[in-house]
């Protein structure tokens, strides 16, 4: 999937502050169509109603975690190719490797800065081009 | 806790951690280990909040210095830095959750209610019981944690560039 700032982006996090931060950063990067969900269940429902070009998700949420969301997406024929970036405080090697094996496109460790988010989005779409 | 304990708990919880460790592994109860980890979490919270406050102040001072100047790009950079620094709320919240869960377990144990959850593997380190099978969520790592337990962004990037 090619990079297009007009593409809808879904931000998934149970901390409203973090959603607000990522939304603002995406806006500065030119993304105008940004939706938000506060857990994997809500995100999955929204993804089945609207085609998102990118999902940026936290891992640790209830009731459905970001990792479960990732697995649901990768198992769904209609959603499986959606780029997925995990943004999380989980930095244990095993967890990073598990997420990679499950098909996450990139992984950002909290706390992060604007440059890191931009570089990971660029990397995801460069790899897909 | 009496007044003489406060400075050590607030300022150098590592000291208490060393005290616990020098007693010998067999003599350190689960409760002491849990409380020691709780003190380390509090120290990490303090450090996280301080780092965020420093970044916010640095950025705010940068904005003040640019007042009246036509340097929109620098202003944008500073404002984005302020925004991302506010992410400390997320990290602090996760650490506080870990502390709350640990204290809940210790309190339950001290009342003779050593519930099954207090004896679950990794229970004292997990953020909650919402992990997937084979995945233990630990939340933000403590400063000084080993590479296996706490990758920084460069470490994560290296794992992702590894094609194996």
Could you outline the blueprint of secondary structure elements for this entry?
The complex is a heterodimer of chains A (129) and B (164).
Chain A: E1 9-12, H1 16-28, E2 34-37, H2 40-47, E3 54-57, H3 66-74, E4 84-88, H4 93-101, E5 106-109, H5 114-128
Parallel strand pairs in A: 1-2, 1-3, 3-4, 4-5
Chain B: H1 6-11, H2 13-22, H3 30-66, H4 72-85, H5 88-110, H6 153-161
Name the poorly predicted regions of chain B: 1-26, 114-129
Cα Rg of chain B: 20 Å
Number of helices of chain B: 6
> How many β-strands of chain B, per DSSP?
0
Would you mind describing this structure in some detail?
The complex is a heterodimer of chains A (129) and B (164). Chain A is an alpha/beta fold and 129 residues long. Helix content of chain A is 42%, strand content 16%. In chain A, helix 3 (66-74) links the parallel strand 3 (54-57) and strand 4. The model of chain A has no long low-confidence stretch (mean pLDDT 94). With 164 residues, chain B is mainly alpha-helical. Chain B is extended and about 65 Å long. In chain B, helix 2 (13-22) runs antiparallel to helix 3. Chain B has helices at 6-11, 13-22, 30-66, 72-85, 88-110, 153-161. At the A-B interface, helix 1, helix 4 and strand 5 of A face helix 4, helix 5 and helix 6 of B.
């Amino acid at each position: 999937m090619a990079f297009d700032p007009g593409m809808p982006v879904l931000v998934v996090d149970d901390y409203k502050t973090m959603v607000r931060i990522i939304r603002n950063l995406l806006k500065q990067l030119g993304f105008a169509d940004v939706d938000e969900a506060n857990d994997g269940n809500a995100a999955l429902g929204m993804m089945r109603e609207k085609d998102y070009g990118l999902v940026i998700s936290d891992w640790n949420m209830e009731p459905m975690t970001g990792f479960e969301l990732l697995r649901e997406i990768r198992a769904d024929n209609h959603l499986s190719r959606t780029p997925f970036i995990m943004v999380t405080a989980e930095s244990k090697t095993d967890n990073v490797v598990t997420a990679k094996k499950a098909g996450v496109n990139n992984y950002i460790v909290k706390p992060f800065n604007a440059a890191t988010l931009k570089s990971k989005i660029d990397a995801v779409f460069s790899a897909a081009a | 806790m009496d007044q003489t304990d406060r400075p050590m708990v607030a300022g150098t919880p590592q000291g208490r951690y060393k005290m616990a460790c020098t007693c010998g592994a067999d003599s350190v109860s689960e409760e002491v280990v849990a409380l020691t980890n709780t003190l380390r979490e509090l120290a990490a919270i303090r450090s996280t909040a301080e780092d965020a406050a420093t970044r916010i102040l640095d950025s705010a001072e940068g904005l003040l210095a640019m007042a009246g100047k036509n340097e929109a790009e620098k202003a944008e950079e500073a404002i984005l830095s302020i925004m991302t620094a506010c992410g400390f709320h997320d990290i602090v919240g996760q650490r506080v959750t870990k502390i709350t869960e640990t204290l809940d377990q210790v309190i339950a144990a001290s009342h003779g209610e050593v519930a099954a959850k207090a004896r679950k593997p990794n229970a004292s380190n997990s953020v909650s019981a919402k992990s997937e099978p084979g995945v233990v969520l630990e939340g933000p790592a403590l400063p000084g944690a080993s590479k296996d337990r706490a990758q920084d962004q460069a470490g994560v990037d290296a794992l992702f560039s590894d094609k194996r």
